[in-house]
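A reminder from the course coordinator: this example appears on the midterm review sheet, so study it carefully.

Given structure:
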């Protein structure tokens, strides 16, 4: 290849990059709507009410309805899966009836909670009666059921190879799946827009990495720009 052909990256200094960023004006109203969207989708009702009062940004939905959705989420995150499922059925019974994967994951979480409570016999009975019939028709469900039942084989299940199922993060994962299903049933967005924009930022940086050396955002929490490495 000759000089100037592909393989030579353009280097953009921190000063030049910052000037470009400063020239981009994002309306405050757009930022406020983005924040409100996050608060509403994630269910931070009181924060949404306060933000509406302070910024004048309408939530776009009935905030009282969010309270019902958050009661479901709190019950699930607290390990009371049965209460969460009953509350969902009160809101809309079709949510669980129309989504077998979600229903299985909720039943799986019930099994995990039985194991967490040391109810070995009840856990085995529940796995056989409630989960095994579902797993017989779905190989993915069967694999997940086998991983869950494997918790019973270890005295310290949290430190076992499948101990991640006992983490609070597992409850959160199931709660988020159920929350998204409720939002979808209410014709609302399943995910807040802010995380999607951050994913888009990371994707854009990955694409640009192939073409240039430039100040990157490496820590999304601080958004601090890291200057490109100096080349000889």
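Designed residues:
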């Amino acid at each position: 290849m000759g000089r100037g052909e592909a393989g030579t990256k353009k280097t953009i200094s921190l000063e030049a990059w910052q000037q470009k960023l400063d020239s981009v004006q994002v309306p405050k109203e757009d930022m406020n709507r983005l924040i409100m969207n996050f608060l509403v989708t994630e269910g931070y009702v009181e924060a949404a009410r306060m933000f509406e009062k302070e910024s004048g940004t309408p939530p776009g939905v009935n905030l009282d309805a969010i309270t019902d959705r958050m009661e479901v989420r709190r019950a699930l995150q607290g390990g009371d899966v049965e209460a969460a499922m009953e509350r969902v059925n009160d809101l809309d019974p079709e949510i669980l009836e129309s989504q077998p994967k979600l229903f299985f994951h909720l039943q799986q979480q019930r099994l995990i909670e039985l194991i967490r409570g040391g109810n070995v016999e009840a856990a085995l009975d529940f796995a056989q009666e409630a989960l095994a019939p579902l797993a017989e028709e779905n190989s993915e469900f069967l694999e997940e059921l086998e991983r869950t039942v494997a918790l019973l084989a270890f005295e310290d299940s949290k430190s076992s190879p499948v101990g991640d199922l006992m983490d609070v993060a597992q409850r959160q994962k199931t709660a988020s799946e159920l929350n998204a299903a409720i939002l979808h049933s209410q014709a609302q967005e399943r995910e807040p827009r802010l995380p999607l924009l951050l994913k888009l930022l990371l994707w854009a940086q990955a694409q640009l990495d192939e073409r240039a050396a430039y100040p990157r955002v490496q820590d999304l929490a601080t958004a601090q720009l890291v200057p490109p490495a100096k080349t000889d």
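Residues 111 and 127 are 7 Å apart (CA to CA). The chain is about 60% helix and 5% strand.
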